[in-house]
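Appendix B, Record 12. Input sequence as logged:
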Amino acid sequence: MGLLKIASRLIETHGEAATLKIPGAAVSDGGGDRTDGTPTEFPVLVLSIVDGTELKLIAPDMVGLENHSVLLSTVGLTHGPAINDLLVIRGQTKAIKKVSEVFLKGEHVFFELVLRNE
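Logged structural output:
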C-alpha cells in the first residue's frame, strides 16, 4: 500500500469533515474601498494533531493564541490551502496561518496547517 493511501486512510478513519473557504476576489464598493467577494467552499477531511510543545518550537510567536494544527487530506482536493484562507471545523471558523506540504518518497500525502481562531 502506498504512502498516500496509508495517510489518506488514517485521516479518513480518524479525521472529521471540515470546509476550506477560499476568499473571493476583492470587489470595489463604489466608494473607493474594496471588500472580499463571495468565498468558494470546498469540503475537506482533516485530522487534528497534538500541537503543544511542537507548536512552541515551530512558531513561538503564535503560542497562546488558541492555535492548533491539523492534517488536511489531499484526496479529492481540487484547490490547496493558502495562508489566510479559512477552515471551518466543528462550527468554528479558523484562519490558516501556516501551510506545510508533506511529501513522502515524492508523493504529496497531506498538508499540515496551523490554525488560529478567527
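The CA atoms of residues 73 and 110 lie 5 Å apart.
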